[in-house]
Amino acid sequence: MTDVKPFPKEFLWGGATAANQCEGAYNLDGRGLANVDLIPTGADRFAIIAGQKKMFTFKKGYFYPAAEAIDMYHHFKDDIALFGEMGFKTYRLSIAWTRIFPKGDELEPNEAGLQFYENLFKECHRYGIEPLVTITHFDCPMHLIREYGGWRSRKMLEFYERLCRTLFTRFKGLVKYWITFNEINMILHAPFMGAGLYFEAGENEEEVKYQAAHHELVASAIATKLAHEIDPQNKVGCMLAAGQYYPNTCNPADYWQAMQEDRSNYFFIDVQVRGEYPHYAEKQFERAGLHIVMTQEDLQLLKENTVDFVSFSYYSSRVASADPKAGEESQGNIFASLKNPYLKSSAWGWQIDPLGLRITLNAIWDRYQKPMFIVENGLGAIDKPDENGYVEDDYRIDYLREHIKAMNEAVNEDGVELLGYTTWGCIDLVSAGTGEMKKRYGFIYVDRDNEGKGTLKRFKKKSFTWYQKVIASNGTDL
């Protein structure tokens, strides 16, 4: 790529992980049990994620990959040193809620958990890496699910507020970029994983999901208020699983369907950025007969505490049709979508659309005019290491190169405001969707397989030195 304009001087290059997909050590140093620990691999995984099958304890015959994951709990110094070697400006990670409050409703935090993250953040700063911290990346303490029903309960506001106050106070000066909830729109598609929701027979599931969503939205506003009060330097963002919907044809009904699908994703962010429920959502509740309990205080909190930036994951665009029999569905993603015949797919059926990232960036910018942060983007692929653990992952380099080009065009040609870019799974980790290890995203290969076997040794892939060059050149050497 020639004559490429660099990204803004202060652009934050880096990578992203989630506690439940990389830390392991699920029962060490006082950590409690969380919903994300109890999602096994295998045929029942999606039913459990969706809140349709109950899994409140470990059961024989299942493998739970998050229990050990890649054991970053014991390897974080070495892993962060590798991130530093690549030149990361930022590292997006998440807090395991049950390390801080093992049950979730205690009055006093677990010091060992706080100390772990303090050590981790200090290690980041040793290498000039700014932590970007997701407060809740699908984590919900199992005690809160058993006792209160997860985010369906208003009591969660008190527990989440206590978690946030503890984090903002303890890590003042160490962390200034925060995200309240990971992929908040996932609550509609993966409610147990997203909000600790398990549905009993006869429940109005839509009402429960939107009530839980309201509680998360209010909790996000409470967190934003607290963050700004405790440290005015703090910047707080919301986060969605993004990817613009294309109409399947130029039939106006298909265009309308695509618009409806986009709205269902942007609904949460509309509230977090604009500070109020959009009219289309109010009308949707009315039509469906959903009764969402909201107080005047809730609405005031939402209005007065909007986010500072909009962050999102982008893996693919999507296709919508008004005709339920319009065509084949794309595979692999929790978000159902028609297959786009103009795009290639990954080994897991995720369609590859770099221009879709530019389209999505422009759509979000046009909608909100708030600074954006791409906090997940990457290619899940099967890597075949040689006898030295080295992986020649040109397919990953090609994927990221094209997406960075599209991102560059959005910034330098379209004028969107973008704070940074953190590739997903900068080190191989457990897949959130399938629970597999063989679906790898990282610049660093981890010797572990789908059954949890392996040495856990780390090896640099070809993409490691490629991304190092990208960062050193501020996006001009691709």
Account of the 3D structure:
The protein is an alpha/beta fold and 478 residues long. The chain has one domain (12-472): Glycosidases (TIM Barrel, Alpha-Beta Barrel), CATH 3.20.20.80. The chain contains 15 helices and 14 strands. It has helices at 19-22, 45-49, 72-86, 97-100, 111-126, 142-148, 156-170, 191-195, 205-230, 252-274, 279-288, 296-304, 354-368, 394-412, 462-472, and strands at residues 12-16, 90-94, 130-136, 177-181, 235-242, 245-247, 309-314, 318-320, 344-345, 351-352, 372-376, 418-424, 444-446, 458-460. The chain has an 8-stranded parallel β-barrel with strand order 1-2-3-4-5-7-11-12, surrounded by 4 helices. Helix 3 packs parallel to helix 5 (111-126), helix 7 (156-170) packs parallel to helix 9 (205-230) and helix 13 runs parallel beside helix 14 (394-412). The longest helix has 26 residues, at 205-230.
